[in-house]
Amino acid sequence: MPGGPPSRDALGGSRAVAVWGIGVAVYFVAVIFRTSLGVAGLDAVERFHVGASALSTFSILQLLVYAGMQIPVGLLVDRLGTKKVLALGALLFTAGQLGFAFSPTYGTALASRALLGCGDAMTFISVLRLGTRWFPARRGPLIAQLASLVGMAGNLISTLVLARLLNSVGWTGAFAGSALAGAVVLVLVLLFLKDHPEGSEPEPFPHQGAAYVRRQIAAAWREPGTRLGMWVHFTTQFPAMVFLLLWGLPYLVEAQGLSRATAGELLTLVVLSHMVIGLVYGQILARHHAARLPLTLGTVAATAVAWAAPLVHPGDHAPMWLLVAMCVVLGACGPASMIGFDFARPANPPERQGTAAGITNIGGFTASMTTLFAIGVLLDATGDNYRIAFSAVFVLQALGVSQILRLGRRAARRERERLVASRVETVHVPA
Fold first, then answer.
1. Which distant-in-sequence residues (6+ apart) come within 8 Å of 335 by Cβ?
2. DSSP secondary-structure letter at 103?
3. Which of 96, 44, 100 is closest to 69 using CA atoms?
């Protein structure tokens, strides 16, 4: 019956893995495109003749569009389903990557990155929703971490493959060639992806007017778990995002005196660390629900220490072991940010999952956008003093931790109330 639970065999079986794998493939390609500028920042400076602030505008605009699209995308996923939203996303981010390849001016390149950000914004929430429809709820944290892990594999492709393509075939060949991957996943979505298993069709979506949209957003926002999830995502994700998306390579080359090859290897280390830590965090959270907040705060503390160590180290350059340690710790930022969805998910009913995920996902990308801009402005203002510019990270971490501590107990109390209520309802259901 519509809205009823799917059969036991449908949840988590081989068909579920195959369908979910198509969705994750779209996210994988989106991350390749999103992070492609991270290895092409110095090339972009030469191609478009811009400074640090203008360079950061590429990523800021991309993230601004991404963050601004999260709630609309969440509503679209709840309204239209995963397949239509993922197909539209793949179409848009492929067009953006292709446009970036052939952009002759800074302005057209900006427009292309904005289009890419719009398509990228439609991927991760859709993949999360796909996971909730095709896998049991108890596997939610692990499935989300696996999706994030595959996304980081896309980042790995950027740092290893795209960087080599830039050196061998140049700007246009590298970006245009990579756009072919977007066309491939678009075809896979259109031909093979299904929103849900047979027999688990959702309830018909009510008439979507402005009043309903406002109620949907307001109801998700009223839940302390949704707001806590947003602030967890805000506080944990952005240091690694800023490092990988734009400023890591210039920092390692210009401030630490490394070659571009060595700097690329350190960026790769962040990605590999993310993949390993993501598996560990997923297993821990699947078994120990109470570990969410300690893991979050521990990751924030470790990130702050690792980020500060090279900045305060005496001398012009930090030792390699310290930079390696920093990159390993930054790998925990992405897995920790996924904990935000583990707070938002149980706080909202199925018909609000997309909206709640959209609100949560705004957090980290808003923090990343703010920090990218702040670092660019501070670098221009201080004559490329990375020690001052990179200190902007600590301001946003402090803000985020204060909000996590404020909302943590409230969200836990509300979650307990919902659990008790669901048990009472189960006891009183007539046989």
1. 145, 148, 274, 277, 278, 280, 281, 282, 299
2. -
3. 96
What ranges in 288-352 are assigned the alpha helix state H?
A: 292-312, 320-330, 333-337, 339-344
* Backbone CA torsion sign across 65, 296, 148, 255: positive
- Cα Dmax for the chain: 74
Q: What pLDDT score was predicted for residue 424?
A: 56
Q: What is the pLDDT of residue 403?
A: 97
The residue type of 424 is V
Measure the CA–CA gap between 193 and 84, rounded to whole angstroms: 10
State yes or no: pLDDT of 391 exceeds 90.
yes
Reduced to 3 states (helix: H, G, I; strand: E, B; else coil), residue 3 is coil
3 state DSSP class of 222: helix
Residue among 238, 258, 239 nearest 42 (CA) = 258
Q: Which has the higher per-residue pLDDT, 41 or 114? A: 114
Count of C-beta atoms within a 10 Å radius of residue 204: 8
What's the angle, vertex CA 312, arms to CA 306 and CA 315, rounded to 5? 120
Residues contacting residue 404 through CB under 8 Å, at least 6 positions apart:
228, 231, 232, 235, 293, 296, 297
Residue 373 CA to chain centroid, in angstroms? 18
Task: Give the distance from CA 57 to its chain's centroid.
Answer: 19
- What is the percent of the chain with per-residue pLDDT over 70, rounded to a whole number? 92
Q: How far apart are CA 431 and CA 429, in angstroms?
A: 6
Spatial distance between the Cα atoms of 258 and 246, rounded to a whole number of angstroms: 16
pLDDT mean across residues, the chain? 87
* pLDDT tens digits along 97-108: 999 999 999 999
- Calculate the CA 207 to chain-centre distance: 31
CA 197 to chain centre: 26
Q: List pLDDT tens digits, range 348-359.
A: 887 788 889 889
Q: Do residues 232 and 338 lie in contact, with contact meaning Cβ atoms separated by under 8 Å?
A: no
| DSSP code, position 331 | T
Residues 6+ apart with CB under 8 A from 401: 235, 297, 300
Instruction: Note whether 172 and 44 are within 8 A (CB).
Output: no
Tokens describing residue 147: 């999706």
CATH level 2 (architecture), domain 14-193+214-428: Up-down Bundle (1.20)
Question: Does 429 have pLDDT greater than 70?
Answer: no
Instruction: Give me the residue spans of the domains in the chain.
Output: 14-193+214-428
Phi–psi pair at 359, nearest 5 degrees: -65, -45
